[in-house]
Structure formats: structure tokens, C-alpha cells
Design goal:
The chain is an alpha/beta fold. The protein is built from 13 helices and 7 strands. The protein has a single domain, classed as Thiamin diphosphate (ThDP)-binding fold, Pyr/PP domains (Rossmann fold, 3-Layer(aba) Sandwich), CATH 3.40.50. Bound molecules: thiamine diphosphate and magnesium ion.
Length: 374
């Protein structure tokens, strides 16, 4: 049967997933050589989630993530050298080397971090979705978090508000079965996270997060609902991390066989390659040439990071507070001298708010009619 997906889409997905895989493998290597310090969490195994999502939404939709955050901005088009430089703590990184692995932030590509506090990004995403709804923008906000984050209070408080206000936000729980060294079933009364959506009267579904095409379809449909004003969606992407929690975790809490089995039968990159070959949309040689291109791109990223200077000492005092009227620093313009398209937002006067958040007057009128007026 012919493929319902174009060659271009399939190869784009493959290219991006392989870029993330290769970037993360080199990150691991560089960490072990002492070039990267501090916390560092790899996305190897979970690539289909970030790439399926990115291909299904628009480039200017908002996105936030946790600390396992190299893959999502790479999928969106962030500069690999500047992401690597951030991990190296160099001045040419997206946050001038002051954020590090857990705090990638790239406004140009609408990627708003990178948060180390488990569950911190969940309420922030509702805030961003509120802002875009309030400004009448046709945007959705996508927020990633882990299975363990679903047990944080912020998850429950935010879901209630997001659903009540019908905010255009897609919550993606990347259920990789572990929170650090703890299997989800050991700590969660309801380990199937998507079922919790029912408690907040919102749409909740499970998706095979190891299959980029299934992710793509699920997000397309969720984004459609969000843009139509139907409110938030919770998608549980069932996925698996092939590496430990962080680069220094020997992962003794799970068996080698479990990991081997997943790697052998469930590798999301091999799956999309297999699909494309079977549909005869590309040849083995085309994949090899993509692989070579990506390897060269990541080699160049490592070289760029390695040759970049440390941030200057006076950077200690910069960016700690925003002064009124201060212009945003445009990272790619600052580092690579490339003109970037920067988002702009309407001023207070220009806002055309038509959406009644709390339609107070209408409510008061109805109260009066019902004899409830104060
Ligand atoms: C509020 C808070 N509590 C505890 C931690 C320590 N911590 C860091 S990662 C993590 C596990 C989170 O697991 P999960 O949400 O499943 O995401 P994953 O690492 O699997 O992607 C914990 C407990 C933290 N960073 N913040
Ligand atoms: Mg987890």
C-alpha cells in the first residue's frame, strides 16, 4: 500500500531523530572527557516524541520542557553548535553558557526552557497558553514532562485551571517508566497517567511514543482541538530511555535484558527507516548519506563548542534582572552574526481581547435574574 506520508516528511523525521541521537552520543562522550560538567540528561530512545510533536505543530507554537531538554530545541531547528556550547558552559551558548544542559532556551524557535525543578514548567505552560488565548493568537502551547512529574501538586492544580479555562495547551507526559531509579508502578496509584485527565474533564490519551508517525498523528489531532477552543489535552507518550537517568547513572535498578530488548525491538529511528524503505520511498544509500551529513554537523558542533571562549567574568553581573525597555539579546545574531526573525507581541493598546475569561457582567446579570444578586 502506498504511504500516506511524503518522502520529504519521513526523511525530515529521520534526519532530526538521528541528529538528536548523534548529538546525545557525542554529549555523553564529551561529558566523560570532562568537557561538560554538572547535571546532564540524555534523550536517547525518546527521539520520536520530540520529532513527532515538532512536525505536527507550527513553528511559532510555544514549547516548554523539563531538564531532558536537548532534543526538543534541536528538533525545532536550534543551532547544534550553540546548544553544545551551552553544555560546555561557553559564552557562545544559547544562554551564554550560564544555563547549562538543563536550561536550553531559544526564543527564536519558541522554545522557552529547560526547567530543573520537576513539574515547574507545567503551570508556566498554562500561563503561556493563557497569554496566547488572551491575545487572540492562534497558537498552542506544548509542554513536556516526565511520568514522575505527574505526581507533583503543580500537575493537578494546573490541570484544573487549564481545563476550566479551556486553555490551548497540549501536555505531553513522556512516560519512560522511571523517575530517576524508581519504576513508575512503585510510586503511582494510577500509573497510566492519561487516565488522570478524566478527573479534570479533559481529553486524555495514550500514544506509542516509540513511533514517530503515531506521535505525529496524535499531536495533529490534539492541536486541532486546542485551536478550535476545546481546551487542553493530555497525551501520555509511552517511551523508554535507553540510557540512565543522567550520564552518571549506571541504571542498576533495571535489568540489562530489559534495555537490550527495547533497543532491539523498539528503536524509534530504525522503525521510521524501516517504514520508509519498505514503502520504497528512499534507498539505503540515501540514509547513509544523511547519516554522514549529520555526523559532520555534530562534529562541527563539538568543535565549535570546544573552540569557543568561556563567558567573560563580567557576565556574572549581567542578565540577572531585566531593565525596563531593555532589548532582548538575540542569541544567533550575537554569536553567529545571522539576522534572525524575532517574535513581537502587541502592546497593551493594540491588544484585541475578545475572549471573556471570567465574564463577570454576564454572570452578574444571570445572578440577578435568578434572584441571587448581592
Ligand atoms: C521538585 C523536585 N523534586 C525532586 C527533584 C529531583 N529529581 C530530578 S529528576 C527526578 C525524576 C523525574 O522523573 P520524570 O519526571 O519521570 O522525568 P525523566 O527524568 O524520567 O525524564 C527527580 C526526582 C527535582 N529536580 N525537583
Ligand atoms: Mg520518567
Amino acid at each position: 500500500m502506498a504511504s500516506q506520508y511524503s518522502k520529504d516528511l519521513l526523511l525530515t523525521m529521520y534526519r532530526k531523530m538521528y541528529l538528536i541521537r548523534r548529538f546525545e552520543e557525542r554529549t555523553d562522550q564529551q561529558y566523560k572527557q570532562g568537557k561538560i560538567a554538572g547535571f546532564c540528561h540524555l534523550y536517547i530512545g525518546q527521539e520520536a516524541v520530540a520529532v513527532g510533536v515538532t512536525e505536527a505543530i507550527r513553528p511559532d507554537d510555544y514549547m516548554l520542557s523539563a531538564y531532558r531538554d536537548h532534543g526538543q530545541p534541536l528538533a525545532r531547528g536550534s543551532d547544534a553548535g550553540m546548544v553544545m556550547a551551552e553544555l560546555f558552559g561557553r559564552g557562545t551558548g544559547y544562554s551564554k553558557g550560564k544555563g547549562g544542559s538543563m536550561h536550553i532556551f531559544d526564543i527564536e524557535h519558541h522554545f522557552y526552557g529547560g526547567y530543573g525543578i520537576v513539574g515547574a514548567q507545567i503551570p508556566l505552560a498554562a500561563g503561556m497558553a493563557f497569554a496566547s488565548r488572551y491575545r487572540n493568537e492562534d497558537r498552542v502551547t506544548v509542554c513536556y514532562f516526565g511520568d514522575a512529574a505527574a505526581n507533583q501538586g503543580s500537575f493537578h492544580e494546573t490541570f484544573n485551571m487549564a481545563a476550566k479555562w479551556k486553555l490551548p495547551v497540549i501536555y505531553i507526559c513522556e512516560n519512560n517508566r522511571y523517575g530517576m531509579g524508581t519504576a513508575i508502578g512503585r510510586v503511582s496509584a494510577e500509573p497510566e497517567i492519561h487516565k488522570r485527565a478524566a478527573a479534570y474533564n479533559m481529553r486524555g490519551e495514550a500514544v506509542d511514543g516509540m513511533d514517530v508517525l503515531k506521535m505525529y498523528e496524535a499531536i495533529k489531532s490534539a492541536a486541532e482541538d486546542c485551536r478550535a477552543g476545546k481546551g487542553p489535552v493530555l497525551l501520555e507518550a509511552n517511551t523508554y530511555r535507553f540510557r540512565g537517568h543522567s550520564v552518571v547513572d549506571p541504571a542498576t535498578y533495571r535489568s540489562k535484558e530489559e534495555v537490550e530488548e527495547e533497543r532491539k525491538t523498539n528503536d524509534p529511528i530504525l522503525k521510521v527507516k524501516d517504514y520508509t524503505l519498505k514503502k520504497k520511498l528512499a534507498t539505503e544509500a540515501e540514509f547513509e548519506s544523511i547519516d554522514e551529513e549529520i555526523k559532520a554537523q555534530v562534529d562541527a558542533a563539538v568543535k565549535f563548542a570546544d573552540e569557543s571562549p568561556e563567558p567573560s567574568l563580567d557576565e556574572l553581573w549581567r542578565d540577572t534582572i531585566v531593565e525596563p525597555g531593555e532589548e532582548d539579546v538575540r542569541p544567533r545574531e550575537r554569536v553567529l552574526g545571522q539576522k534572525v526573525k524575532w517574535p513581537s507581541y502587541p502592546s497593551g493598546q493594540e491588544l484585541k481581547v475578545t475572549w471573556d475569561l471570567e465574564p463577570r457582567e454576564k454572570a452578574e446579570r444571570e445572578d440577578k435574574k435568578a434572584g441571587l444578586a448581592r
